[in-house]
């Protein structure tokens, strides 16, 4: 009889009452969507095997957060070689820049990303000046293109989107620029840009855009009247259209 597949992760739980971070090993059994947890500090079982019907393999990647019995757990690494080999390829990340010209169509582009199997990891509205453009994209782009890019991205709000899926960078470039991704015109579609050429460059770009403080010069992101605000909770985003 074949053994059931088990994916294992190291997770962190921040305890509000004490301000401490505790580490656990989280095992996920995709055959029946169950989980169990081991306390790494005290070397003992913390949570017996329990079904989590709403948890999917696609939710489990480094940097993601899962909720187990009201515990907010952040996945920080794979716990074994089997899990790393099986799932690390699914979590390649890339960055797409939606320019001020394309922000009105942002919903259309985000829908296309999801239709092509991408998971949205980060999304941020930015107001950039020419110095920002050089700071955040010079590692991915030749100098001769930076001035033209700056003239486009500094004309209003720009949306940066970090996406994840298997072969994310090549799939995204093919979506935006067509099949000839080795010889394409960067400015053929000025609504959206893929500026990182490799997964490594995309990781650097994502860190600069999402993990560092941008100089936003205290600009308001909106200036509208007679409007309302809708907040969509993460579990609703994960479940997709009803």
Core attributes:
Alpha-Beta Plaits, 242 residues, PH-domain like, four-stranded antiparallel sheet, alpha+beta, six-stranded antiparallel sheet, 26% helix
Architecture blueprint of SSEs:
Blueprint: E1 7-15, E2 20-29, E3 34-39, E4 44-51, E5 65-68, E6 71-78, H1 81-87, E7 93-98, H2 106-115, E8 119-126, H3 130-137, H4 143-153, E9 158-164, H5 168-177, E10 192-193, H6 199-210, H7 234-239
Antiparallel strand pairs: 1-2, 1-6, 2-3, 3-4, 5-6, 7-9, 7-10, 8-9
Pfam families: NDK
Keywords: Cell projection, Cytoplasm, Cytoskeleton
Domain DM10: 3-91
Describe the protein in words.
Keywords: Cell projection, Cytoplasm, Cytoskeleton. By secondary structure, this protein is an alpha+beta fold. The protein has two domains: 7-88, PH-domain like (Roll); 93-214, Nucleoside diphosphate kinase-like domain (Alpha-Beta Plaits, 2-Layer Sandwich). It has helices at 81-87, 106-115, 130-137, 143-153, 168-177, 199-210, 234-239, and strands at residues 7-15, 20-29, 34-39, 44-51, 65-68, 71-78, 93-98, 119-126, 158-164, 192-193. The strands form two sheets. A six-stranded antiparallel sheet has the order 4-3-2-1-6-5. It has a four-stranded antiparallel sheet with strand order 8-9-7-10, with helices on both faces. A hairpin with a 4-residue loop joins strand 3 (34-39) and strand 4. The model has no long low-confidence stretch (mean pLDDT 85).
């Amino acid at each position: 009889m074949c053994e059931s597949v088990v994916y294992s992760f190291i997770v962190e739980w921040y305890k509000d009452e004490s301000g401490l971070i505790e580490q656990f090993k989280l095992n996920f059994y995709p055959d029946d969507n169950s989980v169990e947890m081991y306390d790494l500090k005290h070397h003992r079982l913390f949570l017996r095997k329990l079904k989590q019907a709403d948890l999917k393999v696609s939710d489990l990647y480094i940097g993601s957060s899962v909720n187990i019995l009201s515990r907010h757990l952040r996945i920080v690494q794979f716990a074994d070689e089997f899990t790393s080999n099986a799932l690390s390829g699914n979590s390649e990340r890339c960055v797409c820049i939606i320019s001020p010209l394309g922000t009105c169509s942002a919903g259309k582009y985000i829908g296309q990303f999801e239709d092509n199997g991408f998971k949205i990891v980060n999304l941020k509205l930015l107001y950039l000046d020419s110095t920002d453009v050089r700071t955040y994209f010079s590692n991915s782009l030749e100098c001769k293109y930076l001035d033209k890019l700056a003239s486009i991205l500094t004309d209003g709000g720009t949306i940066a989107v970090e996406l994840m899926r298997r072969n994310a960078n090549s799939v995204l470039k093919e979506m935006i620029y067509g099949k000839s991704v080795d010889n394409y015109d960067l400015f053929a579609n000025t609504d959206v840009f893929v500026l990182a050429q490799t997964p490594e460059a995309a990781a650097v770009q994502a860190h600069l855009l999402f993990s560092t403080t941008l100089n936003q010069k205290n600009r308001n992101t909106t200036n509208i009247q007679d409007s309302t605000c809708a907040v969509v909770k993460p579990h609703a985003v994960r479940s997709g259209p009803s």
